[in-house]
Fold each of these.
Amino acid sequence: MGFNITFKKSVFKDLKRLSKSEAKIILDKIDTEISKKADIHPQLRGRFKSLRKFRVGNYRVIYTIFDNNILILRIVHRKDAYKDKK
């Protein structure tokens, strides 16, 4: 089953913070891995329980699935993935 992928606007800001090569690797992985097998990746727990995570190197892709669509919410370094913004 293939999924339709959309990105939250803030994801483009996340990608601009990365080098072009890192951003390309992450986008390629989203296209090959998440678009085909989004429902096999682990769900988060606690207050983020409706979200899923996918690891690409030192980065996390945080997304949600609804119907046949995927909404990419964040692309962030693993150490900062679950911290509150202050």
Amino acid sequence: MTDDLTSLPPCPLCSSPYTYEMGALLVCPECAHEWSADASDAPETSGGSVKVIKDAVGNVLADGDTVTVIKDLKVKGSPTAIKVGTKVRGIRLIEGVGDHDIDCKVDGFGQMQLKSSVVKKV
């Protein structure tokens, strides 16, 4: 049984040795990162398959990061806007509609997608 634990690669994001298999994916229990077992050897060297998403000031974003909004954002169907300095915790990086590449839950507004160009990593 200990052979299985040592044969799995560590998490490519946080280097946790406690990864486990869930179907065809490998999962890190510490940072919740999921990746394909085929790409576990070197995800960064596979060329264009890994898209790096950066915030407004150039910091690289990852799933689970906390960010702050850097400008007021009008929300369709809401009389109020998301104000500058609003903290958004636990983001998920996605390939959304248009330039929207962050899926998150904003307090007071609910689930929505944001552009990485309007947030700054905390």
